[in-house]
Amino acid sequence: MNLLKTMTQLIKPEEKSAPAANSETSQITFVTPLANILDTKDGYILEAEMPGVSKEGVEVFIDNGQLILIGHRRVPQPKGEVVYRESRDHDYRRVFEIEPSIDSEKISAKVEQGVLTLHLPKTEAVKPRKISVGD
Fold first, then answer.
1. Across the chain, what does the average pLDDT equal?
2. Among 99, 73, 123, which Cα is nearest to 9's?
3. Which residue would you say has higher pLDDT here, 125 or 94?
4. Residue 52 in domain
5. Distance between CA atoms of 18 and 89, rounded to whole angstroms?
6. Sheet holding 35-39: strands in order across?
């Protein structure tokens, strides 16, 4: 089975403005960031767009087979009265199901120019390997 296809099928997209799960943060509204998933020979690369989020504002969790991405934005206060606004000042949140073939202990993440990039390495058992033929 194609792991990329499986992984993208297991993405649970949330509504565009989903309320937080627990009661303490129920007043917070999250926006679902856009994401790309790339398949490489060693694993997957997940890119999530989170404009306005710095390294200090990113949280990445693994819980019950789910990869949870949260990005907190620092929104500058406008210097004047807002007449029209298209950008949202909400934080970001997205949840992905993790395949058992992903080595969750070796996941790494970085943020650069508002894009969170995660490297999701495959376990050694699912990586292609060459078997030598003996005499």
1. 80
2. 99
3. 94
4. yes
5. 14
6. 35-39, 43-49, 115-121, 108-112
Q: Which domain holds residue 118?
A: 29-75+86-127
pLDDT tens string 68-88: 999 998 877 888 998 988 877
Distance between CA atoms of residues 120 and 91, nearest Å: 23
For 100, the token pair is: 């058992």
Query: Is 116 part of any domain?
Result: yes
DSSP type of residue 82: -
Amino acid identity for residue 43 in this structure: G
Report pLDDT for 16: 40
CB 28 within 8 A of CB 44: no
Using a cut of 0.90, tell me whether the model's pTM lies above it: no
Q: Is 30 exposed, middle or buried (0-12, 13-18, 19+ CB in 10 A)?
A: buried
Q: Which two tokens stand for residue 122?
A: 């495959």
Residue 19 lies in a domain: no
